[in-house]
């Protein structure tokens, strides 16, 4: 045990806490995290005969910055986020602007009634509800003949 302590380098706490100790092992980790920030995170489930999709869209104005459409049987959610921050002090002035657009495309079930899809937005969560028609024609099995 004493031999292991002597051979292992001792890293200062800030390196370990901030993840700097791992940087040679994960050189693209910060790039991956940056890409994840621009992705719309969703939750999908069925409830009371409806497909429910909840998307995290904090900091957007649903009237101006969000577009929901149906394209080729898929639900397309597009949004744009703009954030401006201005800080002024006696001897300085700082302005930061962060913006970006992101989207998510989710396939709708074949039985979804596209004309009855509804969307609502509350507390940074977009909720889309698509009724599923249980009476829609079910796939039929095609017999295979031997020739």
Would you give an account of this structure?
There is one protein chain. The protein is an alpha+beta fold and 147 residues long. It has a domain at 40-134: Immunoglobulin-like (Sandwich), CATH 2.60.40.790. Helix content is 16%, strand content 41%. It contains 4 helices and 7 strands. It has helices at 2-7, 13-17, 29-37, 62-65; strands at residues 42-47, 50-56, 66-71, 74-88, 93-107, 118-122, 125-131. The strands form 2 sheets. A 4-stranded antiparallel beta sheet has the order 1-2-7-6, with no helix packed on it. It has a 3-stranded antiparallel beta sheet with strand order 3-4-5. A hairpin with a 2-residue loop joins β1 (42-47) and β2. The longest helix has 9 residues, at 29-37. The chain starts with a helix and ends in a 16-residue tail after the last strand. 7% of the residues are buried. Mean pLDDT is 77; it is low at 1-5 and 14-19.
Topology:
Layout: H1 2-7, H2 13-17, H3 29-37, E1 42-47, E2 50-56, H4 62-65, E3 66-71, E4 74-88, E5 93-107, E6 118-122, E7 125-131
Antiparallel strand pairs: 1-2, 2-7, 3-4, 4-5, 6-7
Which short descriptors sum up this protein?
single chain, 147 residues, alpha+beta, Immunoglobulin-like, 4-stranded antiparallel beta sheet, 3-stranded antiparallel beta sheet, 4 helices, 7 strands, disordered N terminus
**Helix residue percentage:** 10-25%
Number of strands: 7
Biggest sheet overview: 4 strands, antiparallel
CATH architecture of one domain: Sandwich
Task: Please outline what is shown here.
By secondary structure, the protein is an alpha+beta fold. Helix content is 16%, strand content 41%. The strands form two sheets. Strands 1-2-7-6 form a four-stranded antiparallel β-sheet, with no helix packed on it. A three-stranded antiparallel β-sheet has the order 3-4-5.
